[in-house]
Amino acid sequence: MKIKNIFKPKPPSKHYLYYQQVVRKYLENDKVLKLISPKNEEYYLLNEQDKIAICVSLNGVEISQIDGVSIKEKFELRLLEKLIKQIQVAIELDRKKVKERFFNSQIAALQKIIKL
Question: Which of 18, 26, 86, 108 might form a disulfide with 45, Cβ 3.0–4.6 angstroms?
């Protein structure tokens, strides 16, 4: 019976859940810039107002302040992949919003031209 539990993944630690909550809050904030570094597979959440940056990669999560204070934590790969997926979804939603605004502004410009 113990053999069944060998391959069962451990539940996330409270520490990870805290980091997950911080990332989620940043993703919900419209003032936070969401950036990707595809070459390094790093995802950045930048809050210029509070001067805090969060970097999520497969190497871990790093939270930094402009004054140089930095906290870096490593978690299981599957947990880091979950965080990265959340960021990717948020970036895709932002991209769709920008694309929709651009399309609407094009339509408005064309309508002005037609009225002339």
Answer: 26
Beta bridge partners of 65: 52
Q: What is the pLDDT of residues 41-84, one digit of tens each?
A: 999 999 988 899 999 999 999 999 977 888 899 999 999 999 99
CA 86/CA 70 separation, integer angstroms: 22
Query: 41, 97 in Cβ contact below 8 A?
Result: no
DSSP bridge partners of 107: none
50, 64 Cβ separation under 8 angstroms: no
Q: Quote the Cα angle for 78-79-82, to 5°.
A: 90
**Cβ contact 27:33 at 8 Å:** no
CA distance 51 to 18: 20
Q: How far apart are CA 97 and CA 83, in angstroms?
A: 22
Phi and psi angles of residue 76, each rounded to the nearest 5 degrees, phi first = -60, 150
The contacts of residue 72 (CB under 8 Å, 6+ apart) are: 60, 61, 62, 63
